[in-house]
Amino acid sequence: MASELPPQVQNQIAQLQQVQQQAQALSSQKAQVELMLREVEAALEELSKLPEDAVVYKSAGELLLRVDKPTSESELKERKETLELRIKTIDRQLERAEKRFKELQEQIKRALGSKRPVAE
C-alpha cells in the first residue's frame, strides 16, 4: 500500500511518525524530571523540620560532604526552580509536537480523502 501513496503523503506519514516518537521521548523526559522534582521537594520538606544548626550531609559521587543547612536549602531551592523550568519547557515542546501532529494528520487525511475516489 505504501508504494501506492504519493511521495508527498509518504513523507508526511514519516514526519507524523517522527513527531509521535518525539512526543513519546518528551513525555518520558517529563516523567523523569517530575520524579527528580518530587525528590527535591521531599528533601526540602525534611530540611525544614531540622534546626538551623543541624548537621547535614550531601552526596557528591561516592562521598558524603558536610554542609550547613542554609547552604543545602539554597542549593535545593535552586535545583527545584531549575526542574520546574525544565518541566515548563517540556510542556511547551509537547504542545508544539501535538499541534504539528494534528496538522500532519489533517494533511494526510485531506490527501488520502482526495485520492480515494480515484483509486476506487
Automatic annotation (TrEMBL):
Keyword Cytoplasm (UniProt): yes
Classification via InterPro entries: PFD_beta-like, PfdB, Prefoldin
Protein localization: Cytoplasm
UniProt KW keywords: Chaperone, Coiled coil, Cytoplasm
Superkingdom field: Archaea
Gene Ontology CC terms: cytoplasm; prefoldin complex
GO biological process: chaperone-mediated protein complex assembly; protein folding
Location (main, coarse): cytoplasm
Protein name in the entry: Prefoldin subunit beta
Gene: pfdB
Family annotation (NCBIfam families): gimC_beta (TIGR02338)
Gene3D superfamilies for this protein: 1.10.287.370
Gene Ontology molecular function: protein-folding chaperone binding; unfolded protein binding
Chain's role: Molecular chaperone capable of stabilizing a range of proteins. Seems to fulfill an ATP-independent, HSP70-like function in archaeal de novo protein folding.
Organism: Methermicoccus shengliensis
Coiled-coil blocks: 9-114
Subunit and partners: Heterohexamer of two alpha and four beta subunits.
Entry similarity comment: Belongs to the prefoldin subunit beta family.
